[in-house]
């Protein structure tokens, strides 16, 4: 164990001796002269690559190597008052760095994550974060500033994201609901981050896409974080990567859970789950709800394909303040992403294209307002329409104004629905959404 950790440390310390390259937040590495080194190439002790080869092959800005004492100082001895949160990999603390600590490092707040190293897995996750975020730079990926490796200490230093996670913003109680425009902006940013990962060479499968791993800056720009479970995608003629099933219940794709076969389409399914969370304001799994309602996909997916039932699932906290046509297209996109089989799911570049069309919608959907003016003869005029005094008149006017909202009501609940094994379920998703997306098609997504 000790020898292995020493080897890891030696590799890491040698990988960042190259001169830093000019940083471009949107620069895809496939457009540079460097080919991204995969995690397996770096972590395999029998790899023929020398340390010099690795050092020359790592692209991107230089990572700062921090001493543990320095990180302890900037976090006030990892004070609980500086604790931002605690995930599966360990606690995260807020700190502040400046050029006095590191020459050339701009003064800024940072997030310091201390990884739990119980067992070898923790060290591997720490390595994965450095290998992926040390090479990948994009405006929708959280920026890794540096790391610490001293004896048994493994820490990572990231840019600080002032609005925290999407999970906290979307589900926190006793606060205003996240506006519709912000939700669509977040969905687009997260989709761009995933699309970038899938288009690198070799592709990166995020594997743990969920609302708690989407961080937000002060302008609600979404950035993906926590790359400890990320995997290199299939290379060459391979169609998938076989791996131990890991991730979060409620977000993992069904074929991955059943077989361990991992592809970029697994990330697309997880994105569909988060998109439903944004639409409904409900968590992916909620054991406080009854029966099938506990799983957001089982509850929402049958309703996504019926526009007359869409108002049943939209987050009621929005109070009607959302784009009706935008919600329809987002629901259709979520339905497509949540196909039980990977092939019909769209690519993330296609998802980005659809979500770009949903930004800045101005057809805000409001609850109908009816103003009834009494006249001299005792009748009531409702927007210029003569009605009797009886209450049905006002009801008719309301239904005429908001007919698209109040018509076609259907009883709620489940009706003789039998859940079959995933492998026996067949779907034809394209027929459901092809009339909704109004021409959003691409050669790579010809339909199911």
TrEMBL record:
Is Ribosomal protein included in the keywords of this UniProt record?
no
**A GO biological-process term:** defense response
What GO cellular-component annotations does this UniProt entry give? plasma membrane
Query: Is Mitochondrion given among the entry's keywords?
Result: no
Cross-referenced Pfam families, in alphabetical order?
PK_Tyr_Ser-Thr
Region of interest called Disordered, as start-end residue ranges on this chain: 391-414
Q: Which UniProt keywords apply?
A: ATP-binding, Cell membrane, Kinase, Membrane, Nucleotide-binding, Plant defense, Serine/threonine-protein kinase, Transferase
Which SUPFAM superfamilies does the record match to this protein? Protein kinase-like (PK-like) (SSF56112)
Q: According to the UniProt entry, which residue ranges have a biased composition of type Basic residues? A: 404-414
Question: InterPro entries, from UniProt?
Answer: Kinase-like_dom_sf, Plant_Ser_Thr_Prot_Kinase, Prot_kinase_dom, Ser-Thr/Tyr_kinase_cat_dom, Ser/Thr_kinase_AS
Composition-biased stretches (Basic and acidic residues): 391-403
Instruction: Please list the residue ranges annotated as the Protein kinase domain.
Output: 78-366
Protein's UniProt name: non-specific serine/threonine protein kinase
């Amino acid at each position: 164990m000790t020898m292995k950790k020493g080897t890891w440390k030696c590799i890491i310390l040698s990988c960042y001796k190259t001169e830093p390259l000019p940083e471009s937040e949107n620069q895809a590495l496939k457009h540079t002269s460097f080919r991204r080194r995969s995690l397996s190439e770096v972590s395999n002790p029998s790899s023929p690559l020398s340390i010099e080869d690795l050092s020359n092959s790592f692209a991107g800005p230089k990572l700062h190597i921090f001493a543990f004492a320095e990180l302890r100082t900037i976090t006030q001895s990892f004070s609980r008052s500086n604790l931002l949160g605690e995930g599966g990999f360990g606690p995260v603390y807020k700190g502040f760095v400046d050029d006095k600590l590191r020459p050339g490092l701009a003064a800024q707040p940072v997030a310091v994550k201390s990884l739990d190293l119980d067992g070898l897995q923790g060290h591997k996750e720490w390595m994965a974060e450095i290998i992926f975020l040390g090479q990948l730079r994009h405006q929708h990926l959280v920026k890794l500033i540096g790391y610490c490796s001293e004896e048994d200490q493994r820490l990572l230093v990231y840019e600080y994201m002032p609005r925290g996670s999407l999970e906290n913003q979307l589900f926190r109680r006793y606060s205003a609901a996240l506006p519709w425009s912000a939700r669509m902006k977040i969905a687009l940013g997260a989709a761009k981050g995933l699309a970038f990962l899938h288009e690198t060479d070799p592709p990166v499968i995020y594997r743990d896409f969920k609302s708690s791993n989407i961080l937000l800056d002060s302008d609600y720009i979404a950035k993906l974080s926590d790359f400890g479970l990320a995997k290199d995608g299939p290379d060459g003629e391979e169609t998938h990567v076989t791996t131990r099933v890991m991730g979060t219940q409620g977000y993992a794709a069904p074929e991955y859970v059943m077989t361990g076969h991992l592809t970029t389409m697994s990330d697309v399914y997880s994105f569909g789950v988060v998109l439903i969370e944004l639409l409904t304001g409900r968590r992916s799994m909620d054991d406080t709800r009854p029966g099938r309602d506990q799983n957001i996909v089982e509850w929402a997916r049958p309703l996504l394909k019926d526009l007359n039932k869409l108002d049943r699932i939209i987050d009621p906290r929005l109070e009607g303040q959302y784009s009706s046509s935008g919600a329809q297209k987002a629901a259709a996109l979520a339905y497509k992403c949540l196909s039980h089989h990977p092939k019909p799911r769209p690519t993330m570049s296609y998802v980005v294209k659809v979500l770009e069309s949903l930004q800045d919608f101005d057809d805000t959907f409001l609850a109908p307002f009816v103003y009834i003016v009494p006249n001299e003869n005792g009748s009531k005029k409702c927007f210029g329409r003569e009605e009797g005094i009886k209450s049905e008149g006002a009801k008719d006017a309301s239904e005429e104004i908001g007919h698209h909202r109040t018509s076609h009501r259907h009883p709620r609940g489940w009706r003789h629905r039998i859940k079959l094994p995933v492998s026996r379920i067949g779907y034809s998703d394209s027929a459901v959404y092809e009339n909704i997306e109004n021409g959003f098609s691409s050669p790579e997504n010809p339909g199911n």
